[in-house]
Amino acid sequence: MKIGFIGDIIGKPGRKMVARHLKEIREKEGLDFVIANYENASHGFGLTEKNAKELFRCGIDLMTGGNHTWDKKDIFALLDSYPILRPVNYPEGVPGRGMEVVEVKEEKLAIVNLMGYYSMPMVDNPFITIKRVVEKLHEDGVKNIFIDMHAEATSEKRALLMMLKNSVSAIAGTHTHVGSDDLQIFHDVGYITDVGLTGCRDNVIGMEKSVPIKRFLTGLPGRFDVPDKCKKIFQMVIFEIEDGKCKDAYKVKAYDEEEYFVSQRAFKEE
Q: What is the mean pLDDT of the chain?
């Protein structure tokens, strides 16, 4: 199976890039399932029902969240009625679910949404949680396992790969909005520290630049906004999975209205 994963979609510019490029990429690359991170999709913070419907119409099959999952009140109803996840390691009793098992090409695929510790909201230990989740999936006969690791610290993402080598199919990092140059297949696990944002590329992590610059100069808070007009980027990593193992992985990008292209190919390492 071939699955595509879009990193953090930032506001309207990000949604426009998904609408512009996803259908073509899905058809030309023969994608069987598309996952995307929604947590910044509605003006940079959270997800509304209107924007959720818009993104699903573009060809996304399931969406994952993160620390901004709860920023829009719509999310509580969406978690019950749409293929939308929140991090699996939120404490017991939190609404929604952090994992979904779907059928893709007559095989089971588990999608797990996990959130790190460093500078994040209160969650259960992500490493203990994911070990239990993966062990249960294996007991249930699920071999194909994809994880969106939503974390600030690159070390947490890398440690997750080291811990889960030979146990899952792919781990893709989100949250920093900055794409990393380390796409690889390590002990049969496709991995990238961060896919990078889909949205404005000429500001500060997808947000209008004046407020973060002022904050760094003065320490004063301000409201972050997504610009209406900007130069845009689309970023997706494609993983080819067979019998639970990642056989190939590559990253595709597109700038504004230009055609998409392959920007990275995974290297294999044991």
A: 97
